[in-house]
Amino acid sequence: MAFILLLSVFIIATCGLVYELIASTLASYLLGDSVTQFSTVIGVYLSSMGIGSYLSKYINKNLTAVFIQVELLVGLVGGCSAALLFSLFEYVHSFQVLLYSLVFITGTLVGLEIPLLMRILKGQLEFKDLVSQIFTFDYIGALLASLLFPLVLVPHLGLIRSAFMFGILNVLVAIVTMHLFKEDVPWIRLMRGSAALVLAGLVLGFVYSDKLMSIAEASTYPDTVIYAKSTPYQRIVMTSAPQDLRLFLNGNLQFSSRDEYRYHEALVHVGLQSVPNPRNVLVLGGGDGMAVREILKHDSVQSVVLVDLDGAMTDLFESNPKLVEMNAAALKSPKVKVINGDAFRWLKENREEFDFIAVDFPDPSNYSIGKLYSTAFYKLLYRAVGAQGVAVVQSTSPYVARKSFWCIDRTIRTVGFQTTPYHAFVPSFGEWGFIVASKQPFRAADRFLPGLKFVTPRTAEQMLQFPPDMQPVTTEVNKLNNQVLVRYFEEEWSAYLH
């Protein structure tokens, strides 16, 4: 009996940490700024566990029955938490209040578990053995959860199904405890009935979790969701409407098929056309293959290396017929080599120089992306650009996020590049900014490839002109140790959206 209860410690410790990780990850998906979300969710969760542990001293009767009830409640609240948060995100006035309330309730219940179990077991083990074994199983369970979450749960089950699965485990612990202590548990039939109802609800939630996620995302996205997948790095969602296909990463729009050509032509041709006979090209990010599509229009290009973190992203745009049509099968070209890995680390190990580099990362909405806009990253980029080559960096909106845009410009200049900022109007995004980084003075091309839909000598000249409301402003330099750009970005876009 003691061993089974100690095994329960292992299970509930695993469940408790998984609920914490699910809430943190979900908050970063929906709210952005992963460091802030993980920090605040973990802080609230741990403090509420402390409150739960403190409250356990006031429970003096029917310890086993209370433990069973706590397990059922943890399973119900923790198991349903991800589905509730996803489903209600668009409907509650303050999502943070809902988020932290669920985190607080779950943490308080989890905080009750171990003290109650220790008191139930105290008559069966010596105190020193009880403490050492309880915490050994607790910490091992936490280790298992921390390994399972990124490697198995997120990529293979997703957040909603994972939450339901671990809720089921909590309920099973309650059922086993009922069986072991059936003579000591009052209202045993009522408890069994409650357990059966909660278990049935969680099993149904687990079975239909994809349907629940589809319903939740259908309320979040105005168009029909045709593809959705959680990877270890992000939530990928594709939506479809008449004459429009859209890609969202963690809820943020990446492109619309109606006007993506404007963005990608501006990203590629303004810089690439200025390089005489470019042969070897590097694309960092851009796993959708649209930038590669534009690059391959230049016959002199002999090789393109695409480095994108998420293999699920490049696989999708290499296999889905609609998406392959959009990127003109660019990722299948024999000239293209796709590498799935961290661009920062890849650049650090790279010793090759490139004639042209397109840097097409998501906006710096959190610190993990913000490092890719830092002086440390741009020093590596400088080393990879050939003497006569250029790089172009997508640099968010100079209208909405003016300080962010000019912070990127100043940061690039700090490492030795000469910079030439420009902007283009993309209807889905508004005014969007780019920065040419070169070792020699940049000379804009006076001609472009025939057949482009947007970029011409005239539009390229207009892109280089900034009206008064997008003129340079004074900013700090974005470094790894300050990540000031993320703060600028959050402040500017939050003010704009609200």
Record keyword descriptors for this entry.
single chain, 498 residues, alpha/beta, Growth Hormone, Chain: A, Rossmann fold, 56% helix
> What is the approximate shape?
elongated
Largest sheet entry: 7 strands, mixed
Average predicted local confidence, pLDDT: 91
User: Looking at CATH, which topology of the largest domain would you report?
Assistant: Rossmann fold
Number of strands: 11
Question: Would you tell me the structural class of the helices and strands?
Answer: alpha/beta
State the CATH class of the largest domain: Alpha Beta
Assembly type of the chains comes to single chain
Q: What's the gyration radius in Å?
A: 27 Å
Strand order of the largest sheet: 7-6-5-8-9-11-10
Beginning-to-end CA distance, first to last residue: 57 Å
How big a fraction of the residues is strand?
A: 15-25%
CATH superfamily of the largest domain: Vaccinia Virus protein VP39
Uncertain residue ranges: none
Total count of domains: 3
Total number of helices: 17
Architecture (CATH level 2) name of the largest domain = 3-Layer(aba) Sandwich
Approximate helicity band: 55-70%
Order of helices and strands: HHHHHHHEEEEHEHEHHEHEHHEHEEHH
